[in-house]
UniProtKB/TrEMBL annotation:
Cellular location(s): Cell membrane
Single GO biological process annotation from the record: protein O-linked glycosylation
Protein species of origin: Niastella caeni
GO CC annotations, alphabetized: plasma membrane
Name listed for the protein in its UniProt record: Glycosyltransferase family 39 protein
An example molecular function term from Gene Ontology annotations: mannosyltransferase activity
Length: 529
């Protein structure tokens, strides 16, 4: 009877002394808390969630569809995981994001595991901390999109390949190949090509040419083909080549060659995406670059540097640029920053204080932008007070600078981890969901009949499909709209305000008009007069 209290005391003692355990607990809280509270509204989230549902309802594991039509934007891996969650937790927003959060936690864990194994405990701790305080990293892993799966499997594939080169055991090679294949099923050929380029560059830089001419690479390629290729072949046959044509040419080659959907920009945008995405710790990147020669002394760190370089350069020259595109390099950039911070804290290299001043300036700008942005957006003006959350990073940075002056970088980093953990929890789990409850889909759902056909004129938010669990018939001309309201006067038609002029000659009445949150468009609902 006395042993049980002693066991609990030992567990509590271990929790008090084991920093990484606490970091993993905090990671779980930040990734999972409130993921079902944010309504489905962002376009990609809604399309992915509904596509997974349609596949599940048809019991189809091959052809992804949205609104009953082929969806050739992405391979199916994230749809599979969403279907598992649907069957376990039911059809809701939590289910759509559950495995994204799982893979976020696993990405943090795998970064810790391999960094500790091949570099040092200190570097691993700080690498985890970099990811843990990155709002963008946490935000992406709380969404129903394919990127969480892609990031994890690319990270796992590269780290496992490194383990194979160090220990020469086939288990690591096979794990790397399986991870590479699953990354290909998450995003497509880019998930295979970029890591391959990184690994070849890294092997050549070390002059380990035997790795490139080993029969083991044939096994590596065979595993990838066996895991990834069958689905691509079957979906090609099932869609008579349509998926292959649209996915590979429109959503891969065309996206690389030219901007799509207005997402273009200058070369410098992608490095800025990475630096802003890994705030607050990325402010030390300038100091890190000054010490770049240190990174060639450790092969694992050199590999991480090559990953960051390849992903940033590739997406910088790509025609289409989005903040999530270079995100697979985040865990590797976190290792580089963790390595640098550990060197500073252990007294091996000095660091200046200007990064904290830069961080303070950026946080003041973000606070100002949040205050102004919520004030300008009509739907969010009553919730402008949520902008005060952005005062937390400002206070945190000021406190970290004070501790940096008094006790050094280690104590300053502790303040940053604590302050940003509080901010990320309040912002991601409470503030962001509260604001997004007031999106036009949520506000107008009660006006839509659930048991009859819903129509849309030209364009609409795909979240309507998810909440109605129904196909929406898209009308392309005023004549079609007129025909519908003539035969079905009570029919509801979703559209955008900028299309109302086209319907002036059609006898419709306006049921609702709601501005899309942080967008220029305005959603309208129409019916017959």
């Amino acid at each position: 009877m006395l042993q049980q209290p002693q066991q609990w005391n030992n567990i509590l003692l271990q929790l008090r002394t084991n920093k990484i355990t606490w970091l993993f607990i905090i990671a779980a809280i930040l990734l999972f808390t409130g993921i079902g509270s944010t309504p489905m509204y962002i376009l990609d989230e809604a399309r992915n969630a509904q596509a997974a549902r349609e596949m599940m309802e048809r019991n189809d594991w091959i052809v992804p569809t949205f609104n009953g039509e082929l969806r050739a934007h992405k391979p199916p891996l994230h749809y599979y995981f969403m279907q598992i969650a649907y069957r376990v937790f039911g059809m809701n927003a939590f289910s759509t994001r559950f495995f994204s959060a799982v893979f976020g936690w696993l990405t943090i864990w795998i970064t810790w595991f391999f960094t500790r194994r091949f570099v040092s405990y200190g570097t691993a701790i700080w690498a985890v901390a970099v990811l843990l305080v990155s709002t963008h990293f946490l935000f992406e892993f709380r969404m129903s999109v394919p990127d969480p799966y892609l990031i994890f499997f690319i990270t796992a594939g590269i780290f496992c390949f490194y383990a194979y080169t160090q220990e020469r055991t086939l288990k690591w090679l096979i794990c790397s190949a399986v991870a590479a294949a699953l990354a290909t099923l998450a995003k497509g050929p880019v998930a295979l090509a970029l890591p391959a380029l990184v690994l070849v560059w890294w092997v050549l830089s070390l002059k380990k040419y035997e790795l490139l001419f080993s029969w083991h690479l044939l096994l590596y390629a065979a595993v990838i083909v066996l895991v990834a290729l069958p689905w691509y072949v079957i979906v090609h046959q099932a869609t008579h080549g349509e998926f292959t044509r649209v996915f590979f040419f429109e959503h891969n080659f065309n996206r690389f060659g030219e901007p799509m959907e207005g997402h273009g920009g200058l070369f410098i945008m992608v490095p800025l995406f990475v630096l802003l995405g890994l705030l607050p710790v990325s402010v030390f990147t300038g100091e890190l670059v000054k010490k770049v020669r240190l990174y060639h002394r450790n092969n694992f760190i050199r590999l991480c540097m090559y990953v960051v370089a390849v992903f940033i350069v590739f997406f910088s020259v790509s025609g289409t640029k989005l903040p999530n595109y270079p995100m697979p390099c985040y865990p590797f950039m976190a290792v580089l920053l963790g390595y640098f911070i550990n060197k500073v804290i252990t007294g091996q290299i000095p660091v200046k204080q200007y990064p904290l001043w830069l961080l303070l300036l950026l946080n003041v700008l973000l606070f100002t932008a949040a205050w102004v942005g919520l004030g300008l957006e009509t739907a969010t003006q009553p919730f402008r007070g949520w902008a005060l959350l952005f005062a937390i990073p400002v206070i945190t940075t000021a406190g970290s600078w004070w501790f940096f002056k008094k006790e050094g970088l280690k104590k300053a980093m502790h303040v940053i981890i604590a302050g940003y953990s509080v901010f990320n929890f309040l912002f991601l789990a409470i503030g962001y969901p509260a604001i997004y409850q007031h999106n036009p889909v949520t506000k107008t759902l009660h006006l839509l009949p659930k048991n009859s056909t819903v129509y849309a004129y030209k364009i609409y938010n795909p979240a309507y499909n998810f909440y109605l669990n129904n196909s929406i018939k898209v009308l392309e001309s005023p004549a079609q709209v007129n025909e519908v309201i003539t035969t079905q006067p009570q029919a509801v038609i979703i559209s955008r305000e900028n299309h109302l002029l086209e319907l002036e000659a059609v006898p419709v009445k306006l049921l609702a008009k709601e501005r899309d949150l942080f967008e220029t468009a305005t959603t309208v609902l129409l019916s017959g007069k």
